[in-house]
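lol forgot to send this yesterday, sorry. struct tokens for the thing we talked abt
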């Protein structure tokens, strides 16, 4: 924006030099007024962005160490791909007790990636987890890091791998009889039975 302002100011200075060589009796062309308004608008926008950057000096790190893009309206939200295109919003996560049909934990996160959300929810539920609790989650939560962390927390978990649907029969979703375990759901048990 500041480069655009400098370009417009340069044009104005050149025009001022040309005007002094010509008669000053002529009125300024309408283009000059438009450029003046544009310069003011760009300068205002640059001041607003500088003020926002001063108030929000830290970058938001992503799960892989990359920097997440910021949003001046709601800096905690994230860009997420949906069937309707990219939206700015939150990912909601809920943990339920299926026996009693009650939500035991709910969180909203400003990220489009589900993988990094499993552990915060599991850790928040530690006080309500029984010894025989089985954590189940969909394939979006499957990652080696999540499985290792669940093992460290000594939580039993059933999380399907990313290719489970591709290997299941379409009518029944029954598992195939192949021995390739990387295409089957991951059953991760850490406790001795």
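and heres what i got for the seq, position by position
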């Amino acid at each position: 924006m500041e480069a655009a302002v400098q370009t417009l100011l340069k044009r104005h200075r050149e025009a001022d030099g040309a005007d002094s060589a010509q008669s000053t009796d002529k009125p300024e062309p309408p283009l000059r007024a438009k450029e003046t308004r544009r310069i003011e608008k760009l300068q205002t926008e640059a001041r607003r962005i500088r003020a926002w950057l001063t108030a929000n000096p830290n970058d938001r790190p992503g799960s892989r160490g990359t920097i997440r893009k910021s949003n001046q309206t709601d800096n905690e939200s994230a860009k997420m791909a949906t069937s309707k295109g990219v939206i700015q919003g939150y990912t909601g996560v809920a943990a339920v007790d299926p026996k009693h049909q009650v939500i035991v934990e709910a969180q909203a996160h400003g990220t489009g990636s589900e993988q990094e959300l499993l552990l915060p929810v599991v850790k928040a539920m530690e006080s309500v987890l029984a010894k025989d609790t089985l954590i189940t989650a969909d394939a979006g939560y499957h990652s080696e890091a999540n499985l290792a962390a669940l093992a460290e927390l000594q939580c039993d978990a059933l999380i399907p791998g990313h290719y489970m649907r591709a290997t299941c029969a379409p009518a029944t979703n029954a598992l195939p009889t192949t021995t390739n375990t990387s295409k089957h759901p991951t059953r991760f048990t850490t406790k001795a039975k």
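The beta strands are 60-61, 67-68, 78-82, 85-89, 91-97, 102-109, 134-136, 156-159, 186-188. anyway ping me if u want another try
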